[in-house]
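We modelled each protein-ligand pair independently. The example shown here corresponds to the zinc ion entry; the chain sequence is given first, followed by the ligand as SMILES.
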Amino acid sequence: MRRRWTTGRCWLWCERTAARVLWLGPVKGESGSAPLYACEPCIRRLEAMLRAALIRGTVPAPRRGRWAAGACWLWCERIDVPTLMLGTVERGGQEAPLTVCDACIQRLEDKVRIALAYVPA
Ligand SMILES: [Zn+2]
Ligand SMILES: [Zn+2]
């Protein structure tokens, strides 16, 4: 089993600590890459967005490191804003790019910094 539930901080919407979380994939930030963990309700929300994106058929493969107009998948949930692809989210054999706007990237960067500073034993 590649994916295991663990206890930790949910990086997505609820931002709970000590939640039951699942590893979703690495997120690359300027300060390094950190594992993205999310709890079950947030994963369901992400999966719903993923399904919607796949149904719309608007899951292009944006090039990494390139800003492209798209929907921000994180907190602000704006659509048609400049976004950067941070990584891919894979669930159930389907993969979608995780595109995030500048403001949410800043927010994620803070989390990456905190996560990198705190290395659990
Ligand atoms: Zn959560
Ligand atoms: Zn955003």
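The radius of gyration is 14 Å.
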